[in-house]
Amino acid sequence: MYQAGPSTDLHGDRHARILAPPETACPDMTDDVDQDGSYDERPSKSARKRQSDDLQALGEALIELSESELDALPLPEQLRDAVVLARRITAHGGLYRQKQYIGKLMRKIDAEPIREALDAKRTRERVEATRFHRIEQWRDRLLREGSEAVAALAAELPHIDSKAIGKLTERARKEQEQSSQKVTPAGRELFRVLRDALSNTAP
User: Fold this and answer.
1) Which one, out of 61, 117, 158, 172, has a CA that is 20 to 30 A from the CA of 123?
2) Per-residue exposure over 118-146, b if at least 16 CB sit within 10 Å of its own CB, e if not
3) What angle is formed at CA 95 by the lines to CA 68 and CA 79, rounded to 5 degrees?
């Protein structure tokens, strides 16, 4: 205890003024601290909250899948039934409660196989989208540049029938000149030919 010199109050009484000792730092007492003051090795409260939110979002993502996509996932029957039911609910309040129930089920199972399956599905979709964009780019270039683009395509893909693609390209270009449609029948056929030619190549 620290003691300062005597002081006089309003009544003239002299007394010793007592000063509190300096504050000392103490650990933040959270839910992760045991009663004896030691920290356990469990995830922190915020980490558990993030994990719970992640599982909730993962469960809600299942609602957007088609029937066949659900069948392809390793879902417990109870969880699958809850997801199917959620897709039929139109009332906002009812759907919210069903989503919360799905999240509760997700926290009771090993969600990693589901997460891995969804990640693989998203990867396939990204690859397919990239491939589709590449086909569109080649078709548009062929229609724009003609024989020069055919030669560039043949240089990149030596296995293609460049003569057949060249003839199809010229037909599609003529149709495009004579039609107000952005994509003509020959243009759609050209897209299919390019899709087959690019199907076994890296996106």
Assistant:
1) 158
2) beeeeeeeeeeeebeebbeebbebbbeee
3) 45
Please indicate, yes or no, whether the overall pTM of this predicted structure exceeds 0.85.
no
Judge whether 58 and 110 are in contact, CB under 8 Å: no
Q: How far apart are CA 86 and CA 132, in angstroms?
A: 32
Spatial distance between the Cα atoms of 82 and 56, rounded to a whole number of angstroms: 13
Q: Which of 8, 29, 30, 26 is nearest to 17 (CA)?
A: 8
Rg of the chain taking only CA atoms, in angstroms = 34
Residues in the chain: 203
List the chain pLDDT tens, one digit each, 203 residues.
445 555 444 444 444 444 444 444 444 444 455 555 555 556 688 888 888 899 999 999 999 888 888 888 889 999 999 999 999 999 999 999 999 999 999 999 999 989 998 898 889 889 999 999 999 999 999 999 999 999 999 999 998 999 999 999 999 999 988 887 778 899 999 999 999 988 766 65
